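Page 37, top half.
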Amino acid sequence: MVDSHAHLGLCEPDDAELVAAAGEAGVRRILTVGIDEESSRDAIDATGAHEGVFACAGRHPNGTMTFNAEAAATIETLCRRPEVVAVGETGLDYYRDNAPGEAQAAAFAAHVEIARSVELPLVIHMRDSAQDSFELLEERAAGVEVILHCFSEGLPWAERAAANGWYVSFAGNLTYPKAEEIREAAAFVPSDRVLVETDSPFLAPQVVRGKPNQPANVVSTAERLAELRGVAYEELERAVEENAARVFGW
């Protein structure tokens, strides 16, 4: 199994402990994701310190109040590092009022162009913003591989994502009792476009809910996902590993 989205630098245990625990659980690769330039550099450093760790560099939409051309240039430079296999996370977050929608959209569009320039996939944060996020991607991201991280929408949006050929990644909230819409979407996503993640240290799966999440817990979410899809865990494992290898090039 792989964890297609984690934030090692935001977790309380040190990276070595997290990576070791993930390995013991059968997690072979971890994508650690930056939320700004500093954390993106830290993600790059983590790849050199730990086998099986890869980096994603970008500016989270909640931090886009200060995003400008200089920030975009820095992120593009970081994304040209060989350790970086994806751009982001970027997108739109209408749940938190940390940055105006216009600033988020401008940064989002800039990240799309960075991904196109460096020929890397784009990792999308989408919270209470599906309509605007899909429209921006459909208008601007033709030819760019898209990963909808922590997918939390229902079946109609999963169908639209599939029509666009985007990857859809599911996190621990898939396992929450009230997440029926997410589970319906998870059962639908084509097998060649499904991914699993932890979003550590957030969104721990139900069996450890209330505790800080970590990459090892991706196995619990994947077990539930396999059950929803009516396949053996090993079959889902193969599909997820193949999908991650294809989109991230690792």
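Page 37, bottom half:
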Amino acid sequence: MIYASYMDSPVGRIYFQSSGKGLTYINFRENDKPIEDHEKNEDEHIKLAKKELEEYFAGKIKAFTVKLDLQGTDFQKKVWGKLLEIPYGELRTYAEIAEALGGKRYSRAVGTANKANPIPIIVPCHRVIRMGRRISNYSGGLEVQRKLFEVEDISFGDITYIKKHQ
């Protein structure tokens, strides 16, 4: 059974899905609404994710304990595992993640896997930037990424936003 719900947050409405084994999906886009009767379809994973995200946005927690049921390729799961190792309030580059996975030649693949992250915030893809302190294409949008930087007290005044085809 798929469980689904949503919550309003400082970064807008967040949609959740769970497999019953763990959280599988978070999305900021309203066009991906969960099933209509959301409250009756919450499981313990969604309830805990909501509670922990409320605490995260309030500055009360720096790590999440909600169980995840990550669904993707083996390589994507390896990348997402590395994202989970990035400490709260710190940034890494795609190249650093790639190096940790065996070499800089994986930088583009890391970027692709980062973009495909099904559980943003909890799997902190917002903490990954390009070399030279540049960002682009965060799934929730630039404003959401900046808000997450503010929550984690990450200085972003010197970070440059680049357009997709620049």
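Margin note: The first strand starts at residue 3 and ends at 9.
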